[in-house]
Amino acid sequence: MKPAEVLISEVGPRDGLQSVKATMPTADKLRWIDALVAAGLREIEVGSFVPPKLLPQMADAAEVVRHALTHPGVTIMALVPNLRGAEAALRSGVHKITIPCSASEAHSLANVRKSRQEMVEEVRAIVRLRNDIAPGVKIEAGLSTAFGCTLQGIVSDDDVVWMAEQVVGAGADEAGLSDTTGMANPAQVRRLFHKVRAAIGDKTGAAHMHNTRGLGLANCLAAYDVGVRTFDSSLGGLGGCPYAPGASGNVVTEDLVFMFEAMGIATGVDIDMLIAARAPLQAGLPGEPLYGMTPLAGLPKGWV
Amino acid sequence: MKPAEVLISEVGPRDGLQSVKATMPTADKLRWIDALVAAGLREIEVGSFVPPKLLPQMADAAEVVRHALTHPGVTIMALVPNLRGAEAALRSGVHKITIPCSASEAHSLANVRKSRQEMVEEVRAIVRLRNDIAPGVKIEAGLSTAFGCTLQGIVSDDDVVWMAEQVVGAGADEAGLSDTTGMANPAQVRRLFHKVRAAIGDKTGAAHMHNTRGLGLANCLAAYDVGVRTFDSSLGGLGGCPYAPGASGNVVTEDLVFMFEAMGIATGVDIDMLIAARAPLQAGLPGEPLYGMTPLAGLPKGWV
């Protein structure tokens, strides 16, 4: 197998499970994560460190991390919204944490009850803690609503670039761009990644695209075209029917991997085993709708 | 409204209706076409001229064309598989005919029971007839299975270029590339349109992409990137669940128009009216599943 040329960062066990009503039993989560690893995924966001009262789906985050860490060579990530969550995550042994930092002030206040400037200070405090207790752990700031906001509408490029500079200035190792609301388009993706890279260079992180209006893969292609090499996605497109049934949230890992592999861009992921990983996901969330076209159509004749 | 920079060629009333089992009553077809025109579509493939025994859904093609022609400024197209169909189409008054010409020999024999060379001769005969009885009508050859074939597997670029040269040599005004089987990927789309344009120049026609494995819009973006400006698509993604329910065939017009408009590329199409055109489609095909994410999600906040 060719060495991977892009990194597919699977966010289903966090972003996906956090967005559905049902809580997946821990044993099913572990089986699902094992299947994702077996398919060749090398970075998995396995949980959120948040109060169980707010997100009971994530109450077992430390246990899930502990199991996930038994897989050598896989980067285990967790989301943390604040310093308290960061401390729990860092003590759990994760390799990387991701902090949601809204580019939209309105979304920041609604999502984490902090202004953007306060969130930058939170990043700074988390970096300090990381330096003290777990210096090997990477810190990513995920710039939410980078492409538009359902509360304030348009988010200016300048606001996104400013926020990228702020979080990197506060010590984050990288800043990714998240299309939280499914408002991105390919021209904007190219333009904004260019601008962010001009500002923070190789600290520019992943493209986290949604498929809300069907543009998820086109936006990933656009990001690839301008040099992005890490892409967040979710098996079965789990996570977020923010508007209506059928309007899936996250980009579907199966279709994303198919796109890159078909283009001759190695992902390190085996599509058949990736599709097989839908079974433990579905077993843990009976009746939950899964998305993705490649699993329905199968691989084309002549595929090698 | 900015003048259109891309042409969205709506194929639902032909490609879509031909692929579903139910037959839409003629009156519903006409209402649907009126709604498509009202939304701003300027090219519509309204039917196939084929024996009604083979495709009863298309038995009213001449009547549908007659009505469609009452809309000034709209290019009315029909598909014809052979000389006999072409004669009926040309006498119906259409502005443009499209002839499916497979790049794959296996598909050609299965689809039209002719070899590719025999199909080239059919194009030549149709061109001759057109010159005699309807010299103003444009003739497009749609190169089916240009990106792969479910029968023979891989279709070589050379075969596609050869077929493009043959049909243009036989007098076709343009040759488009069709991803009949949903096997195209963006790298291949860019490469193949480059090669075909190098061979036949500005006789290179539309990109007809399918969404079978979710790559429809990414492939349209790739085609746009290399200069393609005409895109076939189908309202509600109607047409072709060639593999399984949910695995839609044609690119969804609503999502395609949203992508271009969001990128600032004018289509001339009003998205709200386009979404409204789903109502007469659904009324004429009760219970038929429609696809498309933009109609579910709606337009983003701040959209102008």
Distance between the termini of chain A: 11 Å
Spatial shape of chain A: globular
Largest interface: A-B, 49 and 49 residues
Name of the top-level CATH class of chain A:
Alpha Beta
Multimerization state: homodimer
Number of domains of chain A: 1
Low-confidence stretches of chain A: 242-246
What fold name stands as the CATH topology of chain A? TIM Barrel
Number of discrete helical segments of chain A? 13
Q: Describe the biggest sheet of chain A? A: 8 strands, parallel, barrel
Portion in helices of chain A: 40-55%
Strand order of the largest sheet of chain A: 1-2-3-4-5-6-7-8
Strand content of chain A: 5-15%
Order of helices and strands of chain A: EHHEHEHEHHEHEHEHEHHHH
* DSSP summary, beta strand count of chain A: 8
Q: CATH homologous superfamily of chain A? A: Aldolase class I
Name the average pLDDT of chain A.
95
CATH architecture of chain A: Alpha-Beta Barrel
- By secondary-structure content and strand pairing, the structural class of chain A works out as alpha/beta
Q: What can you see in these coordinates?
A:
2 copies of one chain form a homodimer. By secondary structure, chain A is α/β, with parallel strands linked by helices. Chain A has one domain (7-297): Aldolase class I (TIM Barrel, Alpha-Beta Barrel), CATH 3.20.20.70. Helices cover 43% and strands 14% of the residues of chain A. Chain A has 13 helices and 8 strands. Chain A has an 8-stranded parallel beta barrel with strand order 1-2-3-4-5-6-7-8, surrounded by 9 helices. In chain A, strand 3 (75-79), helix 4 and strand 4 form a beta-alpha-beta unit. In chain A, helix 2 packs parallel to helix 3 and helix 2 (26-38) packs antiparallel against helix 12 (278-284). The longest helix of chain A has 18 residues, at 116-133. The termini of chain A are close together. In chain A, 57% of the residues are buried. The model of chain A is unreliable at 242-246 (pLDDT under 50). The interface between A and B is large, with 49 and 49 residues.
